[in-house]
Every structure is written in C-alpha cells, then in structure tokens.
Amino acid sequence: MTALLTLTVLVLVAIAIWQMTKIFELSQTKTEDAEIANDSDNKINGYLLFTFLVFIYGITIFSFVKYSKMLLPEAASAHGGEYDQLMWVSFAIIFFVQTITQALLHYFGYKYRGQKGRKALFYADNDRLEFIWTIIPVVVLAGLILWGLYTWTNIMDINEDDDPIVIELYAQQFNWTARYAGDDNVLGDANVRLINIDKANVLGIDEADPNGEDDVIVKELHLPVGRKVNFKMRSQDVLHSAYMPHFRAQMNCVPGMITQFSFTPTVTTADMRMNPDVVEKVKRTNAVRAERAAEGKPNTDPWEFDYVLLCNKICGKSHYNMQMKIVVETEEEYNAWMAEQSTFKQSMTPAE
Ligand SMILES: [Cu+2]
To answer: From the CA of 178, how far away is ligand 1's center (Å)?
Structure first.
C-alpha cells in the first residue's frame, strides 16, 4: 500500500513538472519551431532506444537469476516429463527469437532515425525475404502445435486400462473432500440435492445406490506410487479448479457436471523431500519463518514439504487457502492407511 501511494505521488509530481515545462515553453517567444524534431532530438531518441534494449535484456537476465528457484521441482507424475519438455522447448524458442528480434528492432530504429536531408527509400517488396520470414514461423509453429496436440491427446486420454483407482475430488467454498470408490472401485451416484448434513452425508451420495456403501470419504489424499489414478471432479457451488502442480495436473470443477483427469504418481512424498530443489526451497522458507519467529510474528512453525491439491480458480474470498494435502506413498503404506478409514455406510449417522 505504501509502495502504491509513493508511486502515485511520484507520477503526480512528474505530471506537474511536465505541465509546468509546457507552460514555460508557451510563455517563451519562439525563435524556431520547437514541435519539429531536429537531428539532435532524433539522436537522443535513438540512444534511448539502445538504453531500453539494455534494460529489457538486463531485466530478463535478472529475473532468470533471481526467480528460477521459484519454479516447480521435477515432475512427480508419469506424463509430467513430456509436459515439461514441451514447455521448456517453447520457452527456449520464444527466448531465442525474442532476443534477436528485439536487438534488430532497436538497432534499425536507431540506424534509420530522422536526419536532415535523408529521404525514406520506397521499397515495394522482396519475394525472397517475404518467403523466408513466412516459412520459418510456419514450420516452427506447425511443429510446436502438432507436438502440443500429440502431448495433449496423450495426457487427456482417460480410460479404464491398467486398473486405475477411482477417486472423486469434491470442491466447495472453501475446501476439498476426496472420495475413494472403495473395494468395488465404483463411485456411488451422488447429487448435491441429496446432501444431508444430519446424516453426515456431506457429498450427497445416493444412499439407495449400493456402489456408494463402500466409498471412503477423506480430507487428506493418499496415493500409492506407480498406480494410475482416475480423478472425477465435482463442484458444489461455483467454478473451482483442481490443481496439483507437482503432478502437472489441472482440471476445472464445474457445478452440475463431472470432469476427469488421470495420472500416475511416480515419486513418493518421502523421495520428493530429498530432491535437491525441494531441500533448497524448504531451507529458504524455514529461514524466512525463523526470521518471523524472531520478530514475534505468527505462522512460524518449520515447514515440511508436502504435495498439495490447490484451487486454481478465484472462487471467493478464501480461495487462496483452499487446499488439501496429498501423500504419495508405497503400496503397503497406502493399504495400511486405507484399512483405517471407514466407509460411507459406516460413517453415516442413522436417521432418528
Ligand atoms: Cu475454489
């Protein structure tokens, strides 16, 4: 807020100075037409172009150095590598083209600046040049788009092969609930109209549907490593988006319909905690928290890395904190955890 105020004041002062300069100029008797740029004006603007070029290159390098550590660690899902590769190749191409075209743009702006006596050359067209600068983007973009489509089709191919676990992710303002399909691996029918808080039926599971009896409702998502998961998303109220950044997964949750996403987690939480990038990040975060603790501020407990499910649609005032912990573990740990959970039938409060 202080920064915004300072900025506003600075802008207002700049406008005031500019206006005063104009008044001063108007009050002077004109010796020459000051509104027409002369050679020295053009030269100054030409050099300013170079200064701006140095600025954008500088800020690019600065951002790379300073903010690269903010990027996500290696992907923790089977499809994540392919997804990252596509993104990095796109980045590299954009970066390469941007660097060269900006230099050319600013250099020519300087080289052909206005000069007394210089006349613009009328140059209709050059077929060869036109061909080159059309065909190169066509080939590169076609390649990227085809590769992207191929990757997209691979990632979005949701099927029942390889015995996936079926899990529902239920979104509401402002929390997540997960529902496992249970022993039969079939989710019971559900509808928001069937929600019955008195009977602890928070997800509106159809009590008459036998498939729902063994469903398991939880507030922490556990996934066995290496096993494919088919997620079915629902929303109770508004648009939400189930975002699992470490698995490179995101799918909108739309009221009134079921959306799907499928992936196979490949790295357990325990292994990801040993990833060098994650170790670094935890260290940095905890250093900040230790500082806050020293100043007597709240929220200073040391942080331990965990996968998270976040909401990625601005769905209301507590959107920022709409999250659920995800634990990726071995098959044995997962089975042991699942054995402790109670089914929908067991957890339902009998009607009085
Ligand atoms: Cu949300």
So the answer is: 14
What does the chain come to in residues?
Answer: 352
- Record the tokens describing residue 63, joined without a space: 């951002």
Prior bond to 108 cis, omega within 30?
A: no
DSSP 290: H
Helices (H), 164-275: 269-272
Q: Output the pLDDT for position 183.
A: 84
Task: Please state the φ and ψ torsions of residue 241, each to the nearest 5 degrees.
Answer: -140, 125
Q: Distance from the CA of 268 to the center of ligand 1, in angstroms? A: 26
d(CA 250, CA 231): 11
Summarised one tens digit per residue, pLDDT across range 100-132 is 999 999 999 888 888 888 888 888 889 999 999
Q: Count other C-beta atoms under 10 Å from residue 249's C-beta.
A: 23
User: How far is the centre of ligand 1, averaged over its atoms, from the C-alpha of 289 (Å)?
Assistant: 27
Whole-model pTM: value is: 0.79
Ligand 1 center from residue 240 Cα (angstroms): 4
DSSP letters spanning 224-249: ETT--EEEEEEESSS-EEEEEGGGTE
Q: CB neighbours (10 Å) of residue 31?
A: 6
pLDDT value for 351: 55
Mean pLDDT calculated for residue range 328-348: 88
Select from 349, 33, 330 the least CA-distant residue to 200: 349
Q: What is the whole-number distance in angstroms between the Cα of residue 322 and the centre of ligand 1? A: 6
Instruction: State pLDDT tens for residues 269-296.
Output: 999 999 999 999 999 999 999 998 888 8
Residue 320 Cα to ligand 1 midpoint, Å, equals 8
Cα–Cα distance for residue pair 352/346, rounded to 1 Å: 16
